[in-house]
Amino acid sequence: MNKLEIIKLTKTYKHKNANEDINLTLESGVYGLLGPNGAGKSTFMKQLATITNPSSGKILYNGKDIKTLDDKYRSMIGYLPQDFDAYKNFKAEEFLMYLAALKGLNKNEAKKRVEELLKLVGLYEVKNKLISKFSGGMKRRVGIAQALLNNPKILILDEPTAGLDPQERARFRNLLSNIGTETIVILSTHIISDIESVAKETIMIKDGKLLLKGTHKEILEDMKGKVYTIKTNDECEIGDIQRNYKVASINRGVENTQLRVISEVLPKYENTTQTEPRFEDVYMFYFELEDAREV
Ligand SMILES: Nc1ncnc2c1ncn2[C@@H]1O[C@H](COP(=O)(O)OP(=O)(O)OP(=O)(O)O)[C@@H](O)[C@H]1O
């Protein structure tokens, strides 16, 4: 069994609830934690990683409070904090060997595991290079590798793809598929495409509260009838639509301009057709975006 139960989890900083009354059950598999800046994702993950204690509520691992499991629980988790900073004066391999020793791996075990992980994150060729000479994406990959050192049962990754280029993002997706199916993986992001293909379920939080949890199919099903395409050539109308609706994208074609609109009611414009929702519409529906994307 590999199960986390999060019960009425609340974290208050001064007078603000960064997490409020969150109830969730997580079992093996990848969960994408989605929410805008300040939604409470890091706070949630820090509590799972025992970096900070809940103000109220509790977290159970296989039925036992993680507070009482203490080091036993900690030995089962891998954590990549949002602000992970590797010791820059270490070489990649040296740094991972050092952390492996801290995590209690013996030297032979550590050597084998570090080599495996360096290959997995694509840093084996540069294992003897100073981390200070690495790009942001490479440093992030060192962070991902260190979170995996102890073969965690629970892997908590706070924005693992921040700073990664498209190729590195693709590599990260492959890497996740190589992580045991017996692991609970929770990864936070505000980039919907990062979780679209890898997460079995998406968890959305907003203003510290749980908004929804579901499979992509369930979430998309819920979006049906809320996405429209409006075709127009009238600049006044385009402005009007932008002021009154959530516009996911604007496509300025030769013949006309097409606006992808998210709305719970049928928009009142002439050339409006309902269209199939895409996963990226979900973010727009639940969270405001500042500007429509011009495509
Ligand atoms: N140590 C702290 N002291 C006071 N307030 C905090 C602290 N940590 C977080 N907060 C506040 O709690 C709220 C949630 O922050 P959190 O970092 O968990 O959000 P987030 O979803 O991870 O955001 P981001 O995507 O920007 O990282 C924010 O309003 C933040 O300012």
UniProtKB/TrEMBL annotation:
Q: Which Pfam families match?
A: ABC_tran (PF00005)
Q: Which family does it belong to?
A: Belongs to the ABC transporter superfamily.
Q: Which domain of life is it from?
A: Bacteria
* Keywords in alphabetical order: ATP-binding, Nucleotide-binding, Transport
Q: What is the name listed in the Swiss-Prot or TrEMBL entry for this protein? A: ABC transporter ATP-binding protein
**Lineage, broadest ranks:** Bacteria, Bacillati, Bacillota, Clostridia, Peptostreptococcales
Q: Which ranges carry the ABC transporter domain?
A: 4-232
The keyword Membrane is annotated on this UniProt entry: no
Q: Which CDD domains match?
A: ABC_drug_resistance_like
A GO molecular function held by the record: ATP hydrolysis activity
Whether Transcription counts among this entry's keywords is: no
Matching PROSITE patterns: ABC_TRANSPORTER_1, ABC_TRANSPORTER_2
